[in-house]
Design goal:
Number of domains: 1
Number of strands: 7
CATH class: Alpha Beta
Structural class: alpha/beta
Helix content: 40-55%
Strand order of the largest sheet: 3-4-2-5-1-6-7
Radius of gyration: 17 Å
CATH architecture: 3-Layer(aba) Sandwich
Shape: globular
Distance between the termini: 10 Å
Strand content: 5-15%
Length: 258
């Protein structure tokens, strides 16, 4: 079942969480795909070590086909590239996503990704989707085609206010377009257990009955090293406390979904 990692607020660790969960799935022997729908291409850079448009093909190639720019309708797997990590494949981002968006909207291609996800699910046991920090065409396409949505939360008040809007938007998409969509949980990121504000904000979310997942992901500078080396935490430092928290989050999430 495809899992969307989504937040309309930028800088909350969306790409980091998506890539690391995907890398953990692949490290456990599962055929895994990550789809990078964010034109910034952070997930693509993280997994491939180079700019998004150095990868060929890209997710833009898939959307080109849906617009009829290709005489041959290739299967969705043709738009997937390998990564340096065994079992982990990528549908890479492209800077062309922005220019394609208005064309896709005007020609009502909002369900093309859902069709592709159904096809890709025949090949991949786990599919993760990294989305832009906006409720645009690509994010809506992902939410309409997925079964679950994972929401990163970075422990500040702006993120909390954005969270309520996001939950309402997901509810509307579920009601109008995808009754199978559910919020799998809120991932607390960059958590500092000794700081009062993060503790209070997270506890208030729990008290409100929101699906806050355990464990909380601790704040650590090693994430920057992971990005710089283009190596997810499970490959960089498997024994690190952040890696262990990510593995526990991954295993708990998928146990609940089973």
């Amino acid at each position: 079942m495809p899992l969307v990692v989504f937040n309309q607020k930028g800088g909350v660790g969306k790409s980091t969480i998506a890539c690391n969960l995907a890398a953990i799935s692949a490290s456990q022997g599962l055929r895994t795909l990550l789809i990078d729908l964010d034109q910034q291409g952070n997930s693509t850079q993280y997994l491939l070590g180079g700019p998004a448009d150095e990868a060929q093909p890209t997710v833009a190639s898939f959307f080109d086909q849906s617009l009829g720019y290709s005489f041959r309708q290739a299967p969705a797997t043709d738009f997937v590239v390998t990564t340096p990590f065994e079992g982990l494949h990528l549908m890479a981002s492209s800077t062309r996503l922005d220019e394609l968006q208005s064309k896709l909207e005007s020609r009502h291609k909002i369900y093309k990704l859902r069709e592709a996800l159904q096809e890709l699910a025949q090949t991949y046991e786990r599919i993760y989707i990294d989305t832009p920090p906006a409720l645009n065409f690509y994010t809506r396409s992902a939410l309409m085609g997925a079964r679950g949505c994972l929401i990163p939360f970075d422990c500040d008040d702006f993120s909390r206010q954005a969270l309520y809007t996001l939950l309402q938007n997901v509810q509307e998409i579920r009601a109008d377009h995808n009754p199978h969509l559910s919020v799998e949980g809120i991932v607390v990121n960059q958590f500092q257990p000794r700081a009062k504000l993060p503790q209070r904000l997270v506890q208030e979310l729990v008290d409100e009955g929101l699906p806050v997942l355990q464990p909380y992901l601790p704040s650590s500078v090693i994430v920057r090293e992971s990005h710089e080396q283009s190596r997810p935490m499970i490959h960089l430092e498997p024994a690190h406390k952040l890696t262990q928290a990510l593995v526990a989050l991954h295993d708990g999430l998928h146990a609940a979904r089973a």
